[in-house]
Amino acid sequence: MFPSSTQKRHWMFRDDAELTNLRNAANKNYVEKFKDLLSDSAREVMLNADEERFLLRHYELQMRDLCRKFSPPMPRPVIGTAFHYFKRFYLNNSVMDYHPKEILVTCVYLACKVEEFNVSIIQFVANIKGDREKAAEIILNNELLLMEQIGYQLTIHNPFRPIEGFLLDIKVRSNLKNAEKLRGGIEELLDRLFLTDAYLLYSPSQIALAAILHSASKNQENLDSYVTQTLLASDARDKLSDLIEAVRKIRSFCKNMDTPPRDVVKQLEKRLELCRNEENNPDSQV
């Protein structure tokens, strides 16, 4: 189903450069639109594209924490879908136009509905600190905006189903005695990949295989013969080399993933409050 999906047609990109160009364009569009409408002090503190990306990393970590602590426990496909929505939204929008703290909770709420994790808005906002009535209003007001900005393309193909298929196949057609011990390492890698652009660049099956091979390596197991002689035995060598390179790049995404320093985040947030679009600020009289 993935090859014919809207995810494959519209939300898979060639490389990091294409993603960077989209984010740079979103930043530039906001700056061009508002440079003559903001005050001099606001124009001076407008964020560049790199600063936006840095700030988004901070809010991605907040979204991960919200999902991890959610009550009742949130299924993993909901988390994956929420991250997809969040990343899609900010490919074409600036954080100065729509604040991440408001889009974040909207993405998670919409993912709950799409993945049929049935929680009411009252149950949902019970997991959010602060003014819950205001949070519910923000989520419901932004829900249609979010759907519009991602083209109403709500179905997400996460790597969890391919993983189950691979594990079943490994149990049947490989020499690995206990495939279930791979789950811990698999989940660890997938959690880290949520914070990267891997899901916009590689298919769910490629990510699933990368997670399995990563976990096998951590468990000092070798699945090379399973991949080359069983899984891809009938495929051409060039296809095999392409897959190996994709797996290598996916695993490399998780390197150098430092947590943004809190003092830098605070500075960026202060600037954001000065230069954000007040028409999209629920606290603004505008």
From TrEMBL:
Pfam families linked to this entry: Cyclin_C_2 (PF16899), Cyclin_N (PF00134)
InterPro entries xref list: Cyclin-like_dom, Cyclin-like_sf, Cyclin/Ssn8, Cyclin_C_2, Cyclin_N, CyclinH/Ccl1
Domain Cyclin-like residues, every copy: 61-148, 165-252
Keyword Cell cycle among UniProt keywords: yes
NCBIfam families: ccl1 (TIGR00569)
Protein role: Regulates CDK7, the catalytic subunit of the CDK-activating kinase (CAK) enzymatic complex. CAK activates the cyclin-associated kinases CDK1, CDK2, CDK4 and CDK6 by threonine phosphorylation. CAK complexed to the core-TFIIH basal transcription factor activates RNA polymerase II by serine phosphorylation of the repetitive C-terminal domain (CTD) of its large subunit (POLR2A), allowing its escape from the promoter and elongation of the transcripts. Involved in cell cycle control and in RNA transcription by RNA polymerase II. Its expression and activity are constant throughout the cell cycle.
Subunit and interaction comment: Associates primarily with CDK7 and MAT1 to form the CAK complex. CAK can further associate with the core-TFIIH to form the TFIIH basal transcription factor.
Name of this chain's protein: Cyclin-H
Organism of provenance: Ranatra chinensis
Lineage, top ranks: Eukaryota, Metazoa, Ecdysozoa, Arthropoda, Hexapoda
